[in-house]
Write a structure and sequence with these properties.
226 residues; 1 helix; 59% strand; Lipoprotein; signal
């Protein structure tokens, strides 16, 4: 998650309750799960690149259909290593769009208007593809029936499919698409952050530097579907 998007999270991490290490869902899901996997029950297990294999992992789970700020969505839950976060996405023929994020049992809520286009339509996904846009990010802190607006600003973002590479991660070997990601503040062009994501169709993100960047990013360790 870019610091430009959720800078205020750092204030909450130190005081948030620590969640236990998430076990992998042992029920193996067989069969195709789509180009952009979004089927309820799917699990991915990740570890920071610089972590030991004995360290607590993070688990990303597709919880299922949900509503975010009145809009239909699919809820994804990322938990472990003190993190408790829900992503609300729409996944359809138009690609993957991020509507918003909730942290620590809805204590902090970020919403994006219009939604962030994380991935394009499947037919448009190819080496050299580019997409992006501008969104308004509003972050609110919701405690004791009170809502405090923490941030309200514009963000510009761009994604570029840089190429394909054979990579090896703890979950195996994949010929991934390498995607370059940039977030920037249009009112301060010097304030920008760059990330890289490795995507494999039908599996999802094999590596991302958008979370735990200070530890080298997150690499896929296991998943519960084949």
């Amino acid at each position: 998650m870019p610091r430009l998007l959720i800078a205020f999270l750092l204030l909450l991490v130190s005081c948030a309750p620590r969640s236990s290490s998430p076990p992998l869902n042992t029920a193996i899901i067989q069969g195709p799960v789509g180009f952009y996997p979004s089927q309820p029950g799917l699990d991915w297990i990740y570890l920071p690149l610089r972590a030991s294999t004995s360290d607590p992992p993070l688990r990303l789970s597709v919880i299922g259909p949900a509503s975010f700020e009145g809009q239909p969505a699919i809820r994804y839950r990322l938990s472990g290593r003190g993190l408790e976060r829900s992503y609300y996405r729409q996944v359809d023929a138009g690609g993957v769009r991020l509507l918003g994020i909730e942290d620590y049992d809805k204590i902090q809520v970020a919403r994006y208007t219009p939604p962030i286009q994380e991935y394009p339509p499947e037919a448009s996904f190819a080496v050299g593809a580019r997409w992006g846009g501008q969104t308004r990010e509003v972050i609110e802190l919701r405690l004791n029936n009170q809502t405090t607006r923490v941030s309200d600003r514009l963000l510009e973002y761009s994604y570029t499919v840089l190429g394909r590479s054979n990579v090896s991660v703890p979950a195996g070997n994949f010929e991934v698409y390498r995607i370059g990601v940039e977030y920037r503040d249009p009112r301060n062009p010097s304030l920008r952050e760059n990330f890289e994501v490795w995507f494999f169709p039908g599996v999802g993100e094999v590596f991302t530097s958008m979370n735990f960047a200070e530890q080298g990013g997150l690499a896929l360790v296991d998943r519960n579907f084949r």
